[in-house]
C-alpha cells in the first residue's frame, strides 16, 4: 500500500504552528510516505464574519496566492522524493454557495486536491463554529434545545454540502463527516445517528466522492476516535467509497503520530 497523507496544514494556518512546508515534507519522507497534500483552510467569503471567537479559522485572502506559489515551489523541490498536492480545505457555509463557487472558479485550475468540510452551523440565522470548544458546542446545544439537535443540524449541513452545486472545481472529498463527535466525551448526544450517517455514505457514493479518513480525533482528549470511527470507515469502504488518509496535521510531527495510529483499513490516494 502506498502511504499518502491527504490532509496537511501549513504555516499559513492562523490557528496552527509555524512549521515550514519543508518540515512536513521531510517528516513524510522519514515516515516512508509516497506523497502528501497541503490542504490549507481556504479564505472565508469577504462578506462572511468568522464566527470563531478568535476569528482565526482560515488564511486571509491576501495570502492565498502566496500559499499556492510556495506549495508549487515545494512541489518542484521534492518532485523526485515525494508527490506533493496543492489543495485547500474549503468550508461549506450554508447560504454562501455562490461566494464559495466564485473562489473555487478562481483558484481551482491551480489546485490538484481539495477537501469540502463543515465547521460552521447556521443556528437561528446566526453562524456558529461547532468545533471550536466544548463550551461553544454547549452554547449551540442550548440555542437549539439539545446536544442531539446540534448533531442533527451538523449531519443535515454535511448533506447539503454533498448536494451543493459549487461549480466544476468543487472538492471531490468530503471532510471529517463525524466532526460533531469532537467533544462527545463531555457533551454527549443520546444516540448514534446511524441513519443519518448511512444516508450520508449513500449520497457520497452516489456522487462518486471520496471520504476524508481523518485521524485527528484520536488526538483530541474529548473525542478519542477517528472521523469517521473505524466501523463507519469499514462500512464506507465496503460501499466502494475511496478513503483518503488525513492526519489533519497542524505541526510536522503529527504526520508521524497519525500514521502510528493507522489501523490497516484499506486506503486510496487522491
Automatic annotation (TrEMBL):
Domain PHP intervals: 5-214
Classification via InterPro entries: Histidinol_P_phosphatase_HisJ (IPR010140), PHP_dom (IPR004013), Pol/histidinol_Pase-like (IPR016195)
Pathway given in the UniProt record: Amino-acid biosynthesis; L-histidine biosynthesis; L-histidine from 5-phospho-alpha-D-ribose 1-diphosphate: step 8/9
Entry annotated with the keyword Nucleus: no
First-level EC class: hydrolase
Enzyme Commission number(s): 3.1.3.15
Keyword tags: Amino-acid biosynthesis, Histidine biosynthesis, Hydrolase
MF terms in GO: histidinol-phosphatase activity
CDD domains: PHP_HisPPase_Hisj_like (cd12110)
Swiss-Prot/TrEMBL catalytic activity: L-histidinol phosphate + H2O = L-histidinol + phosphate
Family note: Belongs to the PHP hydrolase family. HisK subfamily.
Protein name, UniProt field: Histidinol-phosphatase
Organism of origin: Alkalicoccobacillus gibsonii
Organism placement in taxonomy: Bacteria, Bacillati, Bacillota, Bacilli, Bacillales
Amino acid at each position: 500500500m502506498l502511504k499518502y497523507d491527504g490532509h496537511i496544514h501549513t504555516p499559513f494556518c492562523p490557528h496552527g504552528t509555524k512549521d515550514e512546508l519543508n518540515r512536513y515534507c521531510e517528516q513524510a519522507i522519514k515516515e516512508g510516505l509516497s506523497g502528501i497534500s497541503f490542504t490549507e483552510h481556504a479564505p472565508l467569503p469577504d462578506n462572511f464574519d468568522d464566527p470563531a471567537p478568535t476569528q482565526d479559522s482560515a488564511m486571509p485572502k491576501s495570502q492565498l496566492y502566496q500559499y499556492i506559489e510556495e506549495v508549487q515551489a515545494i512541489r518542484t523541490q521534492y518532485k523526485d522524493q515525494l508527490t506533493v498536492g496543492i489543495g485547500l480545505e474549503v468550508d461549506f457555509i450554508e447560504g454562501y454557495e455562490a461566494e464559495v463557487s466564485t473562489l473555487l472558479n478562481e483558484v481551482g485550475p491551480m489546485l490538484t486536491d481539495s477537501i469540502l468540510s463543515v465547521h460552521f452551523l447556521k443556528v437561528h440565522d446566526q453562524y456558529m463554529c461547532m468545533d471550536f470548544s466544548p463550551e461553544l458546542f454547549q452554547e449551540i446545544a442550548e440555542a437549539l434545545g439539545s446536544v442531539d439537535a446540534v448533531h442533527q443540524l451538523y449531519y443535515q449541513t454535511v448533506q447539503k454540502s454533498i448536494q451543493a452545486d459549487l461549480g466544476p472545481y468543487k472538492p471531490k472529498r468530503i471532510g471529517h463527516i463525524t466532526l460533531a463527535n469532537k467533544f462527545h466525551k463531555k457533551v454527549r448526544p443520546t444516540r448514534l445517528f446511524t441513519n443519518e450517517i448511512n444516508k450520508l455514505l449513500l449520497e457520497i457514493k452516489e456522487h462518486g466522492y471520496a471520504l476524508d479518513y481523518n485521524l485527528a480525533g484520536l488526538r483530541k482528549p474529548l473525542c478519542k476516535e477517528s472521523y469517521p470511527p473505524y466501523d463507519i470507515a469499514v462500512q464506507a469502504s465496503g460501499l466502494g467509497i475511496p478513503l483518503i488518509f488525513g492526519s489533519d496535521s497542524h505541526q510536522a510531527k503529527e504526520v508521524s503520530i497519525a500514521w502510528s495510529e493507522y489501523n490497516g483499513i484499506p486506503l486510496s490516494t487522491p
